[in-house]
Design goal:
Layout: E1 2-4, E2 17-19, E3 22-24, H1 30-42, H2 53-64, H3 69-84, H4 110-117, H5 129-150, E4 152-155, H6 177-187, E5 193-197, H7 204-210, E6 216-223, E7 248-253, H8 259-276, E8 280-285, H9 302-313, E9 319-323, H10 329-344
Parallel strand pairs: 1-4, 4-9, 5-6, 5-8, 6-7, 8-9
Antiparallel strand pairs: 2-3
Helix pairs in contact: 1-10, 2-5, 3-4, 5-6, 8-9, 9-10
Bound molecules: N-[3-({4-[(3-aminopropyl)amino]butyl}amino)propyl]acetamide and zinc ion.
């Protein structure tokens, strides 16, 4: 399988996130991507390629195709604005929008804007965040460009983007790269795209971006939001709106779910994306459903990720894998390889 990645994806490196009442080292780190690269090399997987220069040039426009313009303007200048306010280190929000407050009036100061656009205090913006995002979007565009010919492509990027909505960020990420991929596939001519999200967490951002659209079907298998981040989206009764009614499928599962029930949810999601008539598949490929993930509560094994890859291959669709979460860094390489090998029948 063709893999696309870029050294600039190692740049974003937050110092800490709020966790159990303390600032602790970020779970989402550059070492995650390095672990996967090493595993691919060790398995003599075809060498990854960098994004095309033309994709680099088009990266910002691609991000703007699924996010609000003023939100992207904010992301671009957020760390410089933070520095201009006399701060060093990473930018974190100070406040949050509450019920019956003005969720439609961005404030003017950097503290106000961070609080307006962030959904959690676990997603630091660093001096390098924007460059990392440009590299990620460039990888996505190159992956989209190669998909038809290659049949399947793995965009090995970070930070994960599926919690980023049209005009908000959080859950370790800023720009929704799976959504960028789906939108770019639409623009090169596929009329119906499915996004299958196998990350442990619900991809609230992807759901948000496509909720009222009938051309992009979103299906997610995730931990029940009653007990797990992102808490406020991901329930089974969220089925889409307007033209998108019926094009959103949430399959929340309880803590401690193992392959026997997880795979039933996968079969249900696959049946639905088939009946939707998807012409191409984007997979939000997270590995935090792993039994030893440090922040999660599912029980999938390395072998299960191989079974997952094989089940996805059975859909016989052009498939673009986008790397999402997964924080058991010592097992991340083996888990990713298992999924890709399972898909490829290796
Ligand atoms: C892409 C993705 O997987 N984002 C996940 C964001 C989760 N944010 C909340 C993390 C809370 C971590 N608490 C860990 C307690 C472990 N002892
Ligand atoms: Zn996750």
């Amino acid at each position: 399988m063709l893999t696309i990645t870029d050294p600039d994806l190692l740049l974003h490196h937050g110092a800490g996130e709020l966790n159990a009442g303390k600032i602790t080292p970020c779970f989402e780190q550059p070492a995650r991507l390095k672990a996967v690269l090493d595993a691919l090399a060790e398995a003599r997987w075809p060498a990854p390629i960098p994004p095309d220069p033309s994709a680099r040039a088009a990266a910002e426009a691609a991000m703007r195709s699924v996010h609000a313009g003023e939100f992207i303007d904010f992301l671009k200048s957020a760390h410089a604005d933070w520095r201009a306010a006399g701060r060093d280190g990473d930018a974190l929000p100070l406040s949050a929008i509450g019920r019956r407050m003005h969720a439609d009036r961005p404030p003017e100061t950097i503290d106000g804007m961070l609080s307006y656009y962030a959904i959690d205090p676990g997603t630091p913006i660093t001096a390098d965040t924007w460059r990392t995002l440009e590299a990620g979007a460039a990888c996505i565009l190159t992956a989209v460009d190669r998909l038809q010919q290659a049949g399947s492509v793995f965009a090995l990027i970070r930070p994960p983007g599926h919690h980023a909505g049209r005009d908000y960020y959080g859950g370790y990420g800023f720009v929704n790269m799976a959504a960028v991929a789906a939108q770019a596939l639409r623009e090169i001519g596929a009329s119906r795209i499915a996004v299958l999200d196998v990350d442990y967490h619900h991809g609230n951002g992807t759901q948000d971006i496509f909720y009222d659209r009938g051309d992009v079907f979103y299906a997610s298998i995730h931990a029940d939001p009653r007990r797990q981040f992102p808490f406020f989206l991901g329930y089974a009764d969220e089925t889409g709106a307007g033209a998108g009614e019926g094009a959103n499928l949430n399959l929340p599962l309880p803590w401690n779910t193992a392959w026997s029930s997880w795979s039933e949810a996968l079969a249900a999601a696959c049946a639905r994306l088939k009946s939707f008539g998807a012409e191409a598949l984007v997979v939000s490929l997270g590995f935090d459903a792993f039994e030893r993930d440090p922040i999660s509560h599912f029980k999938l094994t390395t072998e299960d990720f191989g079974r997952m890859g094989a089940a996805i291959a059975k859909q016989q669709l052009p498939t673009l894998f986008v790397f999402e979460g997964g924080y058991a860094i010592d097992a991340l390489g083996a888990n990713t390889l298992a999924a890709l090998e399972g898909f490829s029948g290796r």
